[in-house]
Amino acid sequence: MPEAIWLLAKIPPIQIAGATAQNYSSILWTTNGTGSFIDPAVLNPVYTPSAADVSTGIVVLTMNVGGITPCADVSDQLLLSIIQSPQANAGNDAATCEGASYTLNGTSASYYSTLLWTLTPLSGGTITVLHHSIRLSLRQKGSTGQ
After folding, report:
1. What's this model's pTM, rounded to 2 decimal places?
2. Same domain for 98 and 118
3. What is the model's pLDDT at position 77?
């Protein structure tokens, strides 16, 4: 069973670490993806995932080890999982009157596990989530807590 390494998308190349081999004549790393190795003939190479690798989300890296004669060649696999980086859009800047409610439009988020809306200052009002819309109720300047 391949070992697993988890990566976040949009990251620099990854240095493979912890690979080991003994009594070998050669090493050659290969991938089922379209990324590239800086030097595929070293024990712990650097792998750069391609855009297709990121889109697919998973790549198998194989270390092929040439045995010393009369021993056979062997290989082992490493499973590289690539997780998309979270993206957030709080919508366009807007203006509203003091004491008025305002519903945010054009907000979106993807590749996330949790969402948290905050209001600055915290005493500036309340945030209400109604199905897929966000309503801000703003306090008037000078209200309690200001």
Report:
1. 0.63
2. yes
3. 97
